[in-house]
Every structure is written in C-alpha cells, then in structure tokens.
C-alpha cells in the first residue's frame, strides 16, 4: 500500500479528517487539485456544535485568539427572524466568526504538525476497488500516476468526482428562482451608530443579520478583520454580463425600497463581487460504496442560510475519522464503519430540511408574511426557542438511545480534576471518565487505546466518551450501579453496545432515523455498572487484549 487512506480534497473537511486519522495513528495522503489554498471569500464563520468540537481538539483557541471555553451566543436568526437566546438556561448555540480562509489555514497547520502529506496540484482522475483496497489514478505536475490505498475518501465538494465515479446518486432539487449578489462594499459612516446601520426610510439593521423584505433579502457585514460586504437576494432574472458594483447598488436599493449609498471600501484585502443563481438541496443516496466514502459537501449540499455547512462537514470528518482508523488498525467490530452513514446521513437530511425551511421563510409574498407573523408568536415561548436553537446548533443529535439519558448525546463539559473534559479530549482517544470517590470504574481493564481519567464530581459518576465527543455509556449513582451489577450478573448493562460493536451495529435498523441523528435501534443500551462497562469496552476492541487501566 502507498497509503492507508487517500483523501481527495484539502478543504476544511479533508484536512480535519486527516488530523483525526493521524491522531489515531493512521497516515493519509491528502490530494488537492488546486496548487495552493484558495483566497476567495466563502463561509464567514462557524455555528453550532462544531465550535465545541474544535475546543475538544485544541483548535478553538487558535481560531478565536481567546483562551478558555467557548461562550454561547446571546442572539441569532432563523429565516431572517430574530432569536433571543439569552432567555435559555443552557443555550446550545455557539458562534466563531472566523473566515473560511483562516479556518483552512489553521486546519492545514494542524494536519502538517501531525505529519500529514498534502499533495497540491494533484487531481483525482479515476479509481478501481477490490476486496483488498483501492487503486487511485491521479494527475500531478509530472503527469499521471497511481496510488494503492486501503480506503478513498471524497472530500471534494458538491461536484465531487469521487461520488460520481463511485456511482452514488445525488437526489434533490435545484431552486433557480433566487439570485444572490455579494460584493465588498461599505456604507457612509454617518449611517452607522452604536454598531447598527440606520437607514432613513427603512429602519435599523443589525450587523450580519438577514433582513427580509417583500422584495428580497439584505445582509450588512462589517467584518472587523477584512473588507466589509453587502449581500442581497432577489427573485428576479439575472443579467448575463459580468457583475458590476453598480448592479449591487441597484439590487440593494430594490430590496430595501430606499436608496442606501454604497462605496467601494478602502484598504487591502481580497475584493469580492459575485452573483449566484439558484442553489441545490441534495443528499447522497449513500455515504459509502465499498472502500470509498464521502464527507462534507460531497455527501450533501444545501442553502448557506444559517451557516450550517462547515458545522455539518467538520462533524462528518470527526465521526468518520475514529471509525475509519479503527477499521484500518483492526480495532473495529463488525459494522462499525457502516455507522458513519447510519449516524450522519440522518443529520445531513435534517440540515437540508431546515435550510429549505429558512429559505421559505425569507421568500416574498403575503402568504409568507402571514406565516412569519405566526412563527414570531411561536418564538415567544422559550421552549420553542430552545427547539429551534437545538436544530440550528445540532444539539438535538442523538446517536441511538439508552437507559441513561446521556447515551448517544454530546458529552457535557465536566470538570475532571482541575481541567475541563474538553482539554482531556485533545488526544482524540476514547475516554473513560470516573468521578466516583473510590475511583471504582477507573480500575476496570480497558483496551490499550482508551484513556482513563479519574476525578471528583456529582452526577453522572462515570462516562465512556467516544472520540467524536458523544457518550457511549454512562453511570449515574454508585450505590445503584453496585446493586445493578449484583442483580444483572455477567450480562449487566449492555451500555455502549452501539459504540463498541455487537449485533446492533452490524445492520438491522441502523439506517432508520427518527429525530436528527437517531439511528433506529442501533444505539440502544442498558444500564451502567462495571459489568456493562466491561462488555461495552470488549465489544468494540474485539481484536485487542484488555490491559489494566492506569490513571
């Protein structure tokens, strides 16, 4: 083999996957057809669980420039409707306003630090696969050549050649009725007061918030670290000629219904002026074909409204990374790699749904206006605000169900001794956290790649956390778990079967999804207890002997 894994695409998702594999001891080759990183402005930041996920890899501080844990956002928007998030006791929406160009830079630095091999100017031409691996045909600066690899992962975007060559269908819809225009543009300083844009004859516009009118959509983006921008969305016929600054001005005035003078900004930086007609909402019929897998936009595309793209794609990469590494290294139980699709495809489906819903909410028309008024009443209830906030952030994801309410959910950022759980997870290893006074669970024999930490805390008293940050097993009360162990005997508490292997992950109902990220019955677990923990640990690492735990 020339490489254990070949990744086609060195965007954020491909680079994140490379780092996850390297943390687990798997060395990939990353291919990118562009000779250097793109400087074209794209996404303006990150929204949702991905911010906390990056914190668990030590990347949040690099990107934000601030130390400590991420803080939730006090407000956000859904379909150009304001969301008061400060009314929520446990706000799940986190923001990281960093441009994608910088995100890619940091992710590449991280991958190179871990030993990644990134080949720029190398393009995937084709591949063949058999039961032992994949032969990849490439075009590089010196001509065509081939690589032999165990697995090929397509992180090559919405027009993914990997997906097309694998014969994976990409069903969905194309909506060509909306024309989006974006350009580097500033407004006269007298129009800005206390950080708000005040437009005579229209009203007050907060920064970065979608403004819906009966004529279209408007966004004012006064970026602090790069050139400001203006974006509009209209339901009109686009011009055929190359977009001009005058076209952006005319579109702005039409959408707002009044004249807002735009000026070309001073200063250095990449200037943008682009027009996009329509958009796609599509989801791959499969995320895997034999030894070929898809992540990010190669697996799903959708409207950019609400900023879900990188949140979805980077979490694809982290979900796939540890499972693919387990498969390559021989740690995986039968069916483990298949759970990448059964867990992540329902999440992608849900993101496509909610972006379509938001697009419908910003459309023109009296019927939409009436629905928005009704939806505004719906958002007066904090419980409904929480539901929408969890949908936006991905906090509603649950990979299967279990007797303990935390099983399948994002692990809480507990204090483990003097440090946060997020800091302990920087290695990307599975983690057994024991907070009992007697360190009862920390003495359980564990596979060699499971990290064991002991501390002090309240409930839950113990957690088994997957490398992607989701709970595989949990115990609530030490006395109860002791009684449970005695009563259940050797078959006690099949907590964590879904993560560590067993029949539940070999197929069955794994692909049937209910709520976001729920994979049918695939993740059902019983109670906790040492016996349940032992069984869960052993089921995932069937090919490895258990060793005594060390703190």
Automatic annotation (TrEMBL):
Q: For the region Disordered, give the residue spans.
A: 483-531
| Native organism | Kribbella shirazensis
Protein's name in the database: 2-polyprenyl-6-methoxyphenol hydroxylase-like FAD-dependent oxidoreductase
Give the GO molecular function terms.
FAD binding; oxidoreductase activity, acting on paired donors, with incorporation or reduction of molecular oxygen, NAD(P)H as one donor, and incorporation of one atom of oxygen
What keywords sit in the KW lines? FAD, Flavoprotein
Residue span(s) of domain FAD-binding: 3-355
Name the InterPro entries for this protein: FAD-bd, FAD/NAD-bd_sf, RIFMO-like
Cofactor(s) annotated in UniProt: FAD
Keyword Flavoprotein assigned to the entry: answer is yes
Q: Which domain of life is it from?
A: Bacteria
List the top taxonomic levels of the source: Bacteria, Bacillati, Actinomycetota, Actinomycetes, Propionibacteriales
């Amino acid at each position: 083999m020339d490489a254990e894994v070949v990744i086609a695409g060195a965007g954020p998702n491909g680079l994140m996957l490379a780092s996850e594999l390297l943390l687990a001891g798997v060395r990939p080759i990353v291919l990118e057809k562009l000779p250097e990183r793109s400087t074209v402005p794209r996404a303006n930041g990150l929204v949702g669980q991905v911010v906390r996920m990056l914190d668990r890899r030590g990347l949040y501080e690099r990107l934000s420039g601030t130390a400590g844990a991420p803080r939730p956002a006090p407000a956000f928007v859904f379909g150009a409707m304001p969301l008061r998030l400060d009314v929520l006791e446990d706000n799940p929406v986190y923001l990281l306003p960093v441009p994608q160009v910088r995100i890619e830079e940091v992710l590449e630095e991280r991958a190179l630090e871990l030993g990644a091999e990134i080949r720029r100017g190398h393009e995937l031409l084709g591949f063949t696969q058999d039961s032992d691996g994949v032969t990849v045909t490439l075009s590089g600066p010196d001509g065509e050549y081939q690589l032999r690899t165990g697995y090929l992962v397509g992180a090559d975007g919405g027009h993914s050649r990997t997906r097309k060559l694998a014969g994976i269908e990409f069903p969905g819809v194309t909506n060509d009725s909306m024309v989006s225009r974006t350009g580097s543009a500033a407004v006269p300083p007298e129009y800005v007061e206390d950080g708000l844009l005040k437009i005579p004859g229209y009203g007050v516009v907060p920064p970065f918030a979608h403004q819906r009118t009966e004529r279209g959509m408007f966004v004012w983006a006064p970026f602090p670290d790069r050139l400001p921008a203006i974006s509009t969305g209209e339901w009109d016929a686009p011009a055929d000629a190359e977009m001009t600054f005058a076209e952006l001005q005319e579109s702005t005035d039409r959408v707002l219904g009044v004249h807002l003078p735009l000026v070309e900004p001073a200063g250095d930086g990449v200037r943008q002026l682009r027009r996009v007609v329509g958009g796609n909402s599509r989801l791959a019929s499969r995320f895997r074909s034999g030894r070929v897998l898809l992540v990010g936009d190669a697996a799903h595309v959708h409207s950019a409204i609400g900023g879900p793209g990188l949140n979805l794609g980077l979490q694809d990469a982290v979900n796939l990374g540890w499972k693919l590494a387990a498969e390559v290294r021989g740690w995986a139980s039968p069916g483990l790699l298949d759970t990448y699709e059964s867990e992540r495809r329902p999440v992608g489906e849900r993101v496509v749904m909610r972006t379509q819903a938001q697009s419908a909410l910003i459309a023109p028309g009296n019927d939409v206006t009436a629905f928005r008024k009704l939806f505004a009443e719906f958002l007066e209830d904090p419980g409904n605000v929480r539901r929408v906030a969890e949908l936006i952030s991905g906090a509603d994801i649950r990979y299967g169900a279990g007797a303990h309410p935390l099983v399948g959910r994002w692990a809480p950022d507990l204090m483990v001794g003097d440090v946060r759980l997020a800091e302990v997870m920087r290695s990307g290893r599975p983690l057994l956290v024991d907070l009992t006074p007697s360190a009862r669970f920390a003495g359980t024999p564990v596979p060699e790649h499971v990290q064991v930490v002991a501390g002090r805390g309240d409930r839950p008293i113990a957690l088994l956390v997957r490398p992607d940050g989701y709970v595989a097993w949990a115990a609530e009360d030490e006395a109860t778990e002791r009684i449970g162990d005695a009563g259940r005997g050797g078959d006690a508490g099949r907590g964590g079967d879904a993560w560590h292997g067993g029949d539940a992950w070999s197929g069955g109902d794994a692909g049937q999804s209910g709520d976001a990220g729920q994979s049918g019955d695939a993740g059902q677990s019983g109670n906790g207890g040492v016996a349940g923990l032992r069984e869960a640990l052993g089921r995932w690492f069937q090919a490895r002997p258990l060793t005594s735990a060390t703190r």
